[in-house]
Specification:
mainly alpha, two-stranded antiparallel sheet, 4 strands, 909 residues
């Protein structure tokens, strides 16, 4: 399984991904610049995760040296500035094939025909066009244009102001942006260190201030805020989509001119807002950590999202991706439809750490889709399986992409509880897709792969067990130790680095040396902590806090064991630079980067140096993490503007009231409105953006109906994920079709059908919170405290756990089997149209009977019939009816299969 399929090389997958993301493939100095900035971005975030907001370093002899003490607004500004700089370097302003570029070309051609090529107007237009093409157009996606350099420099300038003039920003929070200094004063202030040159020139330059026009007297903070918001919008257009940029820009315009909407206007009167000036708007959108660009979404990105993206990058660059793909095929490849089942396992795992449906579909699909096609699956079905499973990775614990961290922030729910709540629905989804591909395999007579093509499970686990350890540690830190998300991810990243250092230094000739060095470092550290209260370096340089107990010294050693492992591996690789690591297989990107950089410095032999390759692995992981994080950071920065506008304008409660009045008090209708809104808004948008917008608008609509807050947010997340595989856009399915060489729309149809249970399960857990392990707390409590995740005592209370958790969960699992029969049209034999309908009804009754009854009650309410709620007895009775229908249909279908087989046997005889 280690060999790549010949009918779909990785280059094809890369071209598909580049076509969708329109990201540059840079060469030369630009690659070095992006790598340096990306690694710096990752180092900044790792430092924050390890040390908090104080950027300090402990030096031998000198002691602790504090570089800076940053406030949250400053940290967020630097975070976004890094992403903006990388966006303008990685994504072009234009490739020359857009509507504006085409119209410019058409204008030049029209002038040629009408005025002639030598006419002054034609020549002027040609010169302007040539200049614009040189300044911004990048048709081959391989060069950084001058305008990109300018935008990147201005992006860095926006962060500089937050660092150097934060005291002024704090003053302007009280007195408004108009109180800020004008641009010339700020720029001259930056040159205070050159006052002996600047002061004599100040009197000369002052009369020239008129050249700046109105900007000479305008607050620099206001100008920089306007420029910053525009840069975020432009970065959004490049890295995400034009439509998201337009939506966000319309909200900004609405904040300024929404007061023109008459309050007494029918329907739209609720959209009327107070009047705000541009400085008020810019101050709220650019100099605020509660709302706007640097609001809660960016704070979540700083604290949680980036470090988990980095965790995924380290894991992927270590070779874990290919190892897990091989493991999935080794476990299921020989079964019926084995390649498709392996795709579900591999894509689910990779999706949960990557958080990107598109990237996961393409990278994993490059291996899984050709094998599915070769085994007999239709290209559209193969692409649909990959797209469905890859998008499902965003709802699969323990990482769940980026949106899960936003749920933590918006609901105040501990991340460990989010994992527990999301676990059963995620397993149900992947189980449902598994059943569908199994039914399709039996229907089409598709077998598995030959055992000789697959890895041996036992030897494969033995050779790569260390890939499982980081995930186990992550769960331990999150669930057992209950550490914060950021600290858990940070410790896990260090663990990956330590494991890989040991594995990279491990070989037949170095195992003894490695063990000896590690033992010496651990023993020496224990003694230095015991005797001088500090590390070995502190002991050698006269530092330390003084002698301490053995228990304290041992605890300190445990805290540093990751760094000691990295040091042991590094020393071993220094001593034996030519060693061949027998159990380590870096990702191909690491090998390519090692060869390329070694050749660039005319030392090609370095590419085989163990320590150099390990260093390249660390650097490549940090760079790849930054590249992956760029669209996420840009998306959350742009999307934060929308809740910012809603917050300052007071629009939120009005919209909630409007939606509730339109729904007429019907929970079913509100759920459908939310689902459709999530899918429509999510088409072509990152899941995080969809979640940010709709969690602000629609989650407050659901909770008054008794829906648990956490369940409401998970509901919105699920349908945001479904948008990735919903035609006509279906970006993940489009990516899969590019690899499968299939029809994009039909691939989207297959992916949506395979993900139908992902659309029904959210309805089930909204009306039956036990499915997401939530139990209502007694008493009148605030929305966020009404429900809590069940504990051991709740599970042992059989009078609660059996009817509220166990039976509904069993019903959901059986329901997805019935749904699979409905979608595939096959169980033991073909299922006709009538039985398909019956299977669909049984699936609904098994999964969400309360939803069906509530819908009927809502219809009766339209005719003035008073109804009550759905009792637990009615809910369980309907599940029993669904179970009886399901069992009867299965039995009849099985008898039909047996009769068909008997008839075939008689005919052949």
């Amino acid at each position: 399984m280690s060999e790549q399929p010949t009918d779909s090389p990785a280059e094809d997958a890369e071209s598909v991904l580049q076509e969708i993301e329109r990201k540059r493939s840079l060469q030369g100095p630009a690659v070095v610049a992006v790598a340096i900035i990306g690694i710096s971005f990752s180092i900044f975030q790792m430092w924050l995760a390890a040390r908090g907001s104080e950027l300090s370093i402990t030096l031998p002899v000198i002691g602790e040296f504090v570089l800076a003490q940053l406030q949250l607004l400053q940290i967020n500004a630097v975070h976004v500035a890094f992403a903006l700089v990388l966006t303008f370097l990685l994504y072009p302003v234009s490739t020359g094939d857009g509507p504006v570029a085409r119209r410019c070309v058409a204008l030049a051609a029209a002038l040629d025909d009408r005025l002639g090529e030598s006419h002054p107007v034609t020549r002027a237009v040609r010169r302007v066009g040539a200049f614009l093409k040189w300044a911004g157009v990048d048709p081959d996606l391989d060069r950084v244009a001058p305008i990109d350099v300018v935008f990147a420099a201005v992006s860095a300038l926006t962060a500089t102001y937050f660092i150097t003039d934060f005291a002024e920003i704090q003053e302007m929070r009280r007195f408004g942006l108009e109180a800020g200094r004008p641009a010339p004063d700020v720029w001259l202030g930056y040159l205070d260190v050159l006052s002996f040159v600047v002061d004599p020139l100040a009197s000369v330059l002052e009369p020239l201030a008129f050249l700046l026009g109105p900007l000479a007297d305008t607050s620099y903070a206001f100008v920089l805020g306007v420029v910053g918001v525009l840069l975020v919008l432009e970065a959004t257009r490049r890295a995400i989509s034009l439509w998201l940029m337009v939506i966000v820009a319309l909200f900004v315009v609405y904040a300024r001119f929404g007061f023109y909407i008459p309050q007494d206007a029918a329907y739209i009167g609720v959209l009327s807002i107070p009047s705000f000036s541009w400085p008020d708007i810019v101050q709220n959108l650019w100099y605020n950590t509660e709302n706007g660009v640097f609001g809660i979404p960016v704070t979540v990105s700083v604290q949680f999202i980036y470090i988990f993206i980095l965790f995924g990058a380290f894991l992927e660059m270590s070779g874990a991706g290919q190892w897990f793909i091989d493991l999935a095929y080794g476990a299921t490849g020989t079964r019926k439809g084995g390649p498709a089942k392996a795709s579900i396992l591999a894509s689910g795992f990779m999706g949960t750490i990557s958080g990107s449906s598109i990237a996961n579909t393409v990278t994993t699909g490059a291996f899984t889709i050709p094998l599915m096609k070769r085994s007999g699956y239709r290209p559209e079905f193969a692409g649909g399986v990959e797209a469905s499973a890859s998008s499902g990775g965003q709802i699969l614990p323990p990482v769940m992409g980026a949106a899960a961290f936003l749920i933590v922030q918006y609901t105040g729910t501990p991340f460990a509880d989010v994992i527990v709540a999301a676990a059963i629905p995620a397993v149900v989804f992947f189980f449902g897709v598994w059943v569908m591909v199994h039914f399709e395999a039996v229907k089409q007579g598709i077998g598995g792969l030959d055992k000789s093509e697959l890895v041996d499970i036992r030897s494969h686990l033995w050779s790569g067990w260390f890939y499982l350890l980081p995930l186990g540690l992550l769960l331990y830190y999150l669930i057992i130790e209950r550490l914060s998300v950021a600290r858990s991810a940070w410790f896990t990243v260090v663990a990956i680095g330590a494991l890989l250092a040991l594995v990279a230094a491990y070989g037949d000739e170095t195992r003894g040396l490695l063990a000896g060095v590690f033992t010496l470092l651990v023993g020496g550290t224990f003694l230095s902590e015991l005797l001088v209260g500090g590390s070995i370096v502190a002991a050698l340089t006269g530092g330390g806090t003084g002698a301490q107990s053995a228990a304290v010294a041992f605890s300190a050693v445990l805290g540093d064991v990751g760094w000691l492992a990295i040091a042991a591996g590094t020393i071993t690789m220094l001593v034996r630079p030519g060693l061949d690591a027998t159990v380590l297989n870096y990702d191909e990107a690491v090998d390519d980067a090692a060869e390329m950089t070694a050749s660039a410095i005319n030392l090609p032999g370095l590419a085989s140096n163990a320590l150099y390759r390990y260093g390249v692995f660390v650097g490549k992981s940090m760079e790849d993490g930054a590249r992956t994080a760029v669209p996420v950071v840009v998306a959350v920065a742009a999307a934060g503007i929308i809740p910012g506008v809603i917050s300052i304008s007071g629009l939120g409660p009005n919209l909630v009231a409007l939606i509730r009045s339109v729904a007429g008090g019907s929970l079913v209708l509100v759920l459908f409105i939310t689902a459709v809104s999530s899918i429509i808004l999510g088409m072509g948008m990152p899941t995080t953006v969809t979640y940010i917008i709709l969690s602000v608008l629609l989650a407050p609509v659901l909770t008054p109906f008794g829906v648990p807050e956490l369940a409401a947010h998970l509901y919105i997340l699920y349908f945001g994920v479904i948008a990735d595989i919903t035609p006509p856009v279906a970006v993940a399915a489009y990516a899969a079709s590019g690899v499968a060489k299939s029809d994009a729309f039909q691939t989207g149809i297959e992916a949506f059908k395979l993900s139908l249970n992902k659309a029904i399960v959210p309805f089930a857990f909204v009306v039956t919170p036990g499915i997401v392990m939530l139990r209502r707390n007694p008493g009148e409590l605030p929305v966020g405290d009404q429900y809590s995740v069940v504990g051991t005592a709740d599970l042992l209370d059989l009078s609660y756990s059996v009817p509220e958790i166990l039976l509904p969960v069993i019903g959901v699992f059986l329901g997805v089997i019935a749904l699979a029969a409905t979608v595939i049209g096959f169980v033991y034999t073909d299922v006709d149209g009538v039985d398909r309908t019956a299977f669909a009804v049984s699936a609904l009754l098994l999964m969400a009977p309360s939803l069906a009854v509530t819908g009927v009650y809502d219809l009766l309410g339209l005719f003035g019939v008073t109804t009550g709620g759905v009792s637990l007895v009615v809910d369980l009775a309907l599940r029993g009816v669904g179970l009886a229908m399901f069992a009867a249909l299965l039995a009849r279908n099985r008898r039909g299969s047996a009769a068909t087989q008997q008839a075939d046997a008689s005919g052949s005889a």
